[in-house]
TrEMBL record:
Keywords: Iron, Metal-binding, Oxidoreductase
Family: Belongs to the iron/ascorbate-dependent oxidoreductase family.
Lineage, top ranks: Eukaryota, Viridiplantae, Streptophyta, Embryophyta, Tracheophyta
PANTHER family (UniProt xref): OS03G0690500 PROTEIN (PTHR10209:SF859), OXIDOREDUCTASE, 2OG-FE II OXYGENASE FAMILY PROTEIN (PTHR10209)
Protein name as it appears in the record: Fe2OG dioxygenase domain-containing protein
Residues annotated as domain Fe2OG dioxygenase: 39-135
InterPro entries, A to Z: IPNS-like_FE2OG_OXY, IPNS-like_sf, Oxoglu/Fe-dep_dioxygenase_dom
């Protein structure tokens, strides 16, 4: 429990920093997105995908974009995260100690609101992995 609480605090600090960098990328004051409340909420999820003997016949998680400002993801060694790139699903290879940051729907901005540049949330999905990868 204590580890999870500390992890949550550190991810919150990281999200504040990322939002400051994104603010600057939009040509805004560094604290602008945080002032607008973009970093106010936090949701911590843990997903468990049990071993599947026939992943090719399972549905898995459907294609989606994240309904948030940003998502910070710590992958396990198994992976399964994919992103849509040039109309093809590409595996995001897990790297030990690395975090994946996804821009979510709420950060997808209209150029007419912030002027240029703008951000676009990218579709993601989790592909099913086979039993042999889990051993």
């Amino acid at each position: 429990r204590d580890i999870l609480i500390e992890y949550s605090k550190q991810v919150k600090r990281l999200s504040k920093t990322i939002l400051e960098l994104l603010s600057e990328a939009l040509g805004l004051e560094p604290n602008r997105l945080n002032q607008l409340g973009c970093g106010a909420g936090q949701l911590l999820l843990g997903h468990y995908y049990p071993a599947c003997p026939e992943p090719e016949v399972t549905i898995g998680v459907t294609d989606h974009t994240d309904a948030s400002f940003i998502t910070i993801l710590l992958q396990d060694q198994i992976g399964g995260l994919q992103v849509l790139h040039r109309n093809k699903w590409v595996d995001v290879q897990p790297r030990k100690g690395a975090l994946v940051v996804n821009l979510g729907d709420l950060l997808q901005v209209s150029p007419s609101f912030f002027l240029y540049p703008s951000f676009v949330s990218n579709p993601i999905r989790r592909k099913n992995t086979c039993d042999s990868l889990r051993s």
